[in-house]
Write a structure and sequence with these properties.
Layout (H helix, E strand, L loop, with lengths): L3 E7 L6 H6 L6 E6 L6 H7 L3 E4 L6 H11 L4 E6 L2 E3 L1 H13 L3 E10 L13 E8 L4 E3 L5 E3 L3 E12 L4 H21 L6 H19 L6 H28 L4
Parallel strand pairs: 1-2, 1-4, 2-3, 6-10
Antiparallel strand pairs: 4-7, 5-10, 6-7, 8-9
Length: about 250
């Protein structure tokens, strides 16, 4: 019978790691790749039966995930973030897929949730993510938004996976700052140019219009408006950082 390793990349996730692992009781192995947390993340994970391997990420998500694939002991792998939860329906589908052992890679619907607010449109509308596949021949490339590369035919599972996006605004803007920096560096490394008018003035306005109107962020009320405005600034700031990386190596 085929087995599955759940892979969780983590750093300072003591508030999430227990609830995350609780939802993957079906796994033959839970592998936590810990980026040298300074809180109790490794200890909590180990106390729940997870195998914890400490390995520095250094901003390279793709490299860290590929390292994790190589560490996994099962034929199948399932990627899960510490702030994500597998629903019982999805868990049953995962078990069935692994037992069938067909050479496929599975997409799952991720539904974003807050603990105290609701937003299901705009930037937080449900999306599909590729997470379950045989380990052999699979790897990940990319820094900010890594892509899983796999040779298998793709299919979809129906049960939801829940993503508890942010606990507070400090966490939100810490991620905002980190991701805009990584995006700008990625663009520079790829040789992307930056037009002040097109990329810093026009592009952010279109980004706001798209998520607020076309993706119906307005249906989420105050939170939908706030998140859409933040998406405007996210788009602008990553290009501002790119603009000055190209102009003066990021110096003001």
């Amino acid at each position: 019978m085929s087995t599955v390793t759940v892979i969780i990349l983590a750093k300072n996730e003591e508030q999430n790691i227990k609830d995350c692992i609780d939802t993957v009781g079906f796994a033959d192995e839970v592998l936590v790749i810990d980026d040298f947390s300074t809180d109790q993340t490794p200890e909590i994970a180990a106390s729940m039966g997870a195998r914890v391997v400490q390995h520095a990420m250094n901003g390279d998500w793709g490299g860290q995930q590929t390292f994790a694939i190589q560490e996994a002991k099962s034929k199948w792998i399932l990627f899960l973030d510490a702030d994500e939860r597998i629903s019982p329906e999805l868990g049953a589908e995962i078990v069935t897929a692994v037992q069938k052992d067909e050479p496929k890679a599975y997409w799952m619907q991720r539904r974003n949730k807050f603990h105290h607010n609701k937003a299901t449109h705009g930037v937080l509308r449900p999306d599909y993510v590729l997470r379950l596949m045989p380990a052999e021949g699979s790897y990940v490339e990319g820094y900010v938004h890594p892509a899983i590369i796999t040779p298998y035919k793709e299919a979809k599972l129906q049960g939801p996976m829940y993503h508890y996006t942010y606990d507070n605004w400090q966490q939100y803007f810490n991620k905002f700052n980190n991701y805009t920096t990584l995006a700008a560096e990625k663009y520079k490394d790829a040789g992307k140019s930056c037009s002040f008018f097109k990329d810093i003035i026009i592009r952010p306005s279109w980004a706001f219009f798209k998520v607020y109107i076309f993706d119906r962020g307005f249906l989420d009320g105050k939170m939908g408006f706030i998140l859409s405005v933040n998406h405007y600034f996210y788009t602008m700031i990553k290009y501002v950082k790119l603009y000055y990386l190209l102009k003066s190596n990021g110096k003001l």
